[in-house]
Amino acid sequence: MLLSSVTLRLASLTRSEIDVGEIERFVRDVAAGKSARDEKTGPRTRIIVRGGEGAARKVVRDLSAVFSFAVRRGIVAENPVERASIRKTDNRRERFLTLEEVTRLGAAFDAMEEAGANPKAMGIARLWALTGCRRDEIAGLRWSEVDFERGLLILADSKTGKSIRPLGAAAVALLQGFVRDETSDYVFPAEKGDGHYQGTKRFWGKIIEKADLPGVTPHTLRHTIGSTAVSMGEALALTGAILGHANPRSTAIYAHVQNDPSRRAANRVTKQIAAALAGKSADGKKQRKAAAR
Fold first, then answer.
1. What distance in Å separates the CA atoms of residue 186 and residue 177, rounded to the nearest whole number?
2. Staple partner for 96: which of 158, 224, 252, 268, CB 3.0–4.6 Å?
3. Strand partners for 45
4. Are residues 171 and 46 in the same domain?
């Protein structure tokens, strides 16, 4: 398949030649539609590439992911996309739950649990809400990655490589309550065979229906932890530590922080979430008026 001249130029460069200027030029050209192609590939098939602003933002994300991988593997010294003066997001408001919505989610959790929902699915969903971890970071969590003594998750291979996440007391208590399957290192082992539990998709659909939270995803819970932290006045560096951000742009600023203060921040933030899930205010008073439908 023929490539546009814009793509061919970038592809012809060595990794040392792809600098900030080349990234900025490439993204400008894609945004301007110079990468557009309409190519016939068969009697009844063709490939149409339109370019434009949306395509440019996707290119930015893909290029940044490639260079981040290369940095972690020692192939290149830095990610030029991070320093490039280009638009990296689409400026959409990230969805997060209010504490009232978290209370409804908690009521749905309780109702599903009382109805006999799979305890692995329940555990995964509750940890999504209490940690701010990504979907597969919890679904595929291993016991070897849980440090109960220091209250940390030490993830071997997250989206940003090895990542240390502080845990709040509620998340630690929840993890301590799970019965360990001695035949598997996974916290939530598969029902059959090797690997980890994979049955959260249908379960999550039932949860958000019961809580009347259409469109809410496990990633929404990650944004909820971040927004709760910021609204409580937590330092952005500590918020970044809780969420495992490796990129300074992810939380506006980021600095290396010790685990103790970031763990205390995680405890303060998730205490609010845990209280709302249990239908209580932050001071422990019961406030849930009715269970979810």
1. 15
2. 224
3. none
4. no
